[in-house]
Specification:
Strand content: 25-35%
Order of helices and strands: HHEEEEEH
Largest sheet: 3 strands, antiparallel
Helix content: 40-55%
Distance between the termini: 18 Å
Radius of gyration: 20 Å
Number of strands: 5
Length: about 100
Amino acid sequence: MGDTITRAHLSEAVYQEVGLSRNESAELVESVLQEISDCLSNGDTVKLSSFGSFSVRQKGGRMGRNPKTGEEVPIKPRRVLVFRPSHVLKERINAALSGKAAAAE
């Protein structure tokens, strides 16, 4: 599997591609991530063209079970983050996977 992409990787990519200074690139990445976070915290949906959309969904409370003891435990209602990839992203991923499979044969 591939490596995990970090904020530092994103900042470096912006630095390489856009030509901003390293500090400006880091600030740009931070501001974009902060804006996405703020919108999601407010319950808004964030759509990134050709990538996907992030949204927050409300999950109701329910009874769960502790798998170790079998004891029933209430699970509180909560909000969860949902990501739906775009068709473009799905096609790119599947094309990359099929390319790797063909190369392995």
